[in-house]
Structure formats: C-alpha cells, structure tokens
Amino acid sequence: MSIGIDKIGFYVPKEYIDIVELAQARDVDPNKFTIGIGQDKQAVPEPYQDAVTMAASSADSILTAEDKKDLGLLIVGTESSVDESKSTAAFLMDLLELPEDIRSYEIKQACFGATAGLQAAYDFVSLNPDKKALVIASDIARYGIKTPGEVTQGAGSVAMIISQNPRILKLDHKSVYMTRNVGDFWRPTFSKTAFARGKYSNEVYVEFFETLWNKYQTKYDVTADDFSTMLFHIPYTKMGTKALRTVEKSVSADKYKKLTKHYQESIKFSREIGNLYTGSLYLGLLSYLINAAQENEKVLLFSYGSGAVGELYSAEIQPGFEKMIDKNLILDEMKSRQKLSIPDYEKIYQVEYKNGTMVDPSEVDTKFYLSAIKENERLYKKLK
Ligand code: COA
Q1: Which residues lie closer than 8 Å to 371 by C-beta, 6 or more apart?
Q2: What is residue 384's predicted lDDT score, i.e. its pLDDT?
Q3: What is annotated as the active site (predicted)?
Q4: Catalytic site residue 262?
C-alpha cells in the first residue's frame, strides 16, 4: 500500500520584520544576517496568536468535510505549547469542527515533533487504510530581543493530511534515525524564550546528518545519485547549507550543482518567514513543491530536533502533485503581509496576556484567535 502526504496546508502570520532593518537596529553588518545566517524576513505573530490558532489556520486551509469524516488521528507537533497538560490537538476540535471519534495528541521533541507525527501517522494508516491522519506542525520560535538567536526567530504552521494513495508525496518507508542526550538547545518550563548553544547545535546537526546519511546509504545500498533533492530542517537557511556541503566531497561537480540548485528552491519560503521550529523541514518541502519540484522525483528529508533526535527518510513526489497545492493562495498569503518597524515588533513581542484578558474581536485580523483567559484557561474563537 502506498502512504504519504495527500494534502499540505500552510499558515504564516500577517506581519513581518525586514532582516536588514533588524541588523541596522542591532548595529550589525546586514550581510551577516542576509548572507552569514541566510535570512531576509521574519514572521511576527500578534499576541492573540499562538500554536493553537496557527495550527487551526493551516489545517483549515486544506480540510474538507470529506476529510473530516475520514480522520482517525490528529497529531500536533509543537514546542510552543500553551498548556503543560492539555494538548494543542484538543483545543482544535471545536475550532476545526472535528468529529469526536478520533485519537488526538501533541508530540514534543524540539523540531523533530512533526516528523514523529508523520511517522506515527504512517503506521496508523498502514493499520487503518480507510482512515486519514492530520499532522500539524505549529510553532513560534523565540530567543529574545537583542540575543544572538533573535535573527533566527519566526512563526507559522504547516498541516499535512496523511492517507493511502497520497497525491503529493509517497513515503518510501525507508528511514534511519538516532537519539543522543545533547545540550544544544532547550526551553525550561518557566521560560518563554529558548536557550541555545547555537554553534554547538550547528555542529551536532551536521554530525547527525553525516551519520544518518552514511547509515542510510549502507542500509539501503544507495548513493546521492539515487536522489534528485535533499531537503533539510532549516531553522535558518545557513544551517541546511552546512549539512549539504558535507555531501560535496562524495558526488560529481554536476550532481552537487543540481543538489545546491534544488536546495536554493527549498529555502525560498524560509528566507521570507524564518524559523518554524518543527514545521521548518515541511516549509522547505512546500517551498520546493511550489518552486521547482518535478513529478516522480526521489527526495531525501533530514529532520533534526535539538536535544537531540535526527531522522533521514526518503519519499517520492507524486504525478499531478501541483493540482493538490493552491500555489496562488500560498504566494498571496506571503506577499500580502505587512512590514512592521523594529520598535513596533519589540512592542508586540513584549505583550504578555495574563489571566483576565479579554481580546476585542474588532482588533483581530485572523480567522482563529485567543479570545480570553478566564480562570487561567485559554479560550479560543473563530471570527464569523
Ligand atoms: N558578512 C557575511 N557573513 C558574515 C558576516 C558578514 N559581515 N559576519 C559574520 N558572518 C557569518 C559568519 O562567518 C558565520 O558564518 P558561518 O556559520 O558559515 O561560519 C555566520 O555569519 C554567523 O556568524 P557568527 O559569528 O557565528 O554569529 P553569532 O555568534 O551571532 O551566532 C547563531 C549565530 C546562528 C549561532 C545564533 O544566531 C544562534 O545561536 N541562533 C540559534 C540557533 C539554534 O540553536 N537553533 C537551534 C537549531 S536546531
């Protein structure tokens, strides 16, 4: 049975900051941010947006009544959870008007969560071929104002429907993975912002990729020539570039040129949005599908979640995949965003809703929003 991604949806907040302006405000050479880090813009969510509202938006962009009827599993991968107990998935039941007879939960393992969800969905559909699974990655990447990680922030969500006979990406069920207890990035429960040993994280990420790529080649007796594209977890685009460079020594110049060209197509959206944490790899996939992918291409996907878990798996782009993606809608969503000044971004960043908050719906410009916090419970609404 063939199983994989049948639909892919996306949500990006409606405001962004310009990375050159951020560099100027921080008294940094803009080339460091645009070339050294590899970013151009950074999405900024409103205070009434969070992992729940963004997950609802990305899923809402693809779910039909037919899909809802067939759903058996809902998994949200996030490291920006709003509750230590209740899952982001449970909040989505009302917002998305989902039927009750589904299993739902949240997965956390830094930026690996969505891949864990995707693999669990694969297993679920294998056992329940008539059912579909909805896997959503939703995150707000926050390191703090004036920190070294500030330039690698971002926000957004990617939703995927996993089913048999997928019309976008068939998973090969060929995968290698590894886990190691590593202190490269963490966010304790008391903190709204992450702590990172950024350079160390880079080293571990590259080492995981090299280890898994060697393992994959041995296990399945393949080389880079068996794949046309390598997609990477891209919290910021320089990071994937570093992993890709490790392949250069083992392939022909022509092959490396092609892999690099395809990689450039896969990072276009990330350059414009920034870090989606667990959605980053899938934003790269979406960018590639929209900007360059060809039918029947064999692709490799490298997922990495600090702490650290890595997985490298392969997949095949399906004939007619373009018809399953609303390219114009996605490009319009990105183009129609408003630029925020750096002082305005800093103001929004510092807003923290407390118990007793009531959000005025006339000030909301997104379909799903946090409407109130009552008795410390977060309440959500959908704009009519
Ligand atoms: N023009 C062009 N490039 C420049 C430059 C300039 N004027 N100045 C610096 N650079 C380059 C550096 O050479 C470096 O490139 P390299 O990584 O290829 O060597 C890059 O810009 C970054 O410079 P660096 O001095 O390392 O920056 P930094 O100390 O500010 O740290 C990060 C950068 C990415 C480590 C930091 O932003 C961070 O910690 N982010 C969080 C990342 C993280 O942990 N994510 C989790 C990932 S899973």
Answers
A1: 48, 358, 359, 361, 379, 380, 381
A2: 78
A3: 79 (proton donor/acceptor), 111 (acyl-thioester intermediate), 233 (proton donor/acceptor)
A4: no
Residue bearing the CA closest to ligand 1, atom 14: 36
Give, in words, the CATH class of 3-168+324-382.
Answer: alpha beta
When pLDDT is averaged across residues 234-262 and rounded to a whole number, the result is 98
User: What pLDDT sits at residue 300?
Assistant: 98
Q: Catalytic residue at 150?
A: no
Same topology, domains 3-168+324-382 and 170-321? Answer is yes
What pLDDT band is residue 93 in, cutting at 50, 70 and 90?
very high
Task: Give nearest CA residue, ligand 1 atom 11.
Answer: 36
* Cα–ligand 1 centroid distance for 384 (angstroms): 44
Helices marked H in 160-267 — which ranges?
198-220, 237-245, 253-266
The whole-angstrom separation of Cα 342 and Cα 348 is 10
State the fold for domain 170-321.
Peroxisomal Thiolase; Chain A, domain 1 (3.40.47)
| 355 annotated binding-site participant | no
Segments making up each domain of the chain, as ranges: 3-168+324-382, 170-321
Q: How far is the CA of 45 from the centre of ligand 1 (A)?
A: 24
Query: What is the torsional sign of CA 33, 34, 38, 41?
Result: positive
* Cα–Cα distance measured from residue 144 to residue 141, given in angstroms and rounded to the nearest whole number: 9
- For residue range 306-348, list pLDDT tens digits in order: 999 999 999 999 999 999 999 999 999 999 999 999 999 999 9
Is the CB of residue 198 below 6 angstroms from any atom belonging to ligand 1? yes
Query: Looking at residues 86-107, what average pLDDT do you find?
Result: 98
239 alpha carbon to ligand 1 midpoint, in Å?
Answer: 9
Please report which confidence band the pLDDT of residue 126 belongs to, taking 50, 70 and 90 as the band edges.
very high
Q: Tell me if 60 is assigned to a ligand binding site.
A: no
275 is in an annotated binding site: yes
Residue 213: predicted pLDDT: 98
Burial class (CB in 10 A: 0-12, 13-18, 19+), 51: buried
Question: Cα(54) to centroid of ligand 1, in Å?
Answer: 28
Tokens (6 digits) for 292: 């360059």
Ligand 1 atom with least separation from CA of 28? 7
> Is the Cα torsion angle 179, 180, 186, 188 positive or negative in sign?
positive
Model pLDDT for residues 19-46, shown as the tens digit of each residue: 999 999 999 999 999 999 999 999 999 9
205 labelled binding-site residue: no
